[in-house]
Write a structure and sequence with these properties.
Length: about 55
């Protein structure tokens, strides 16, 4: 059974998947493209989960 912490993290990324890009880029220093298509792709890919919540 997932912990409350796990559930909170899952919900956080379901509601705002672009946060993964921000964490990778801003906190971990990963070089990612700074383009709206990446965010648009994330929103399209996870749109169904956003509607469920």
């Amino acid at each position: 059974m997932p912990s409350p912490r796990h559930d909170a993290l899952v919900k956080m990324f379901e509601h705002r998947p672009e946060l993964a890009v921000e964490i990778l880029r801003d906190l971990m220093g990963a070089e990612l493209p700074d383009t709206p298509p990446l965010t648009a792709w994330l929103r399209q890919k996870y749109a169904a989960s956003w509607r469920r919540s």
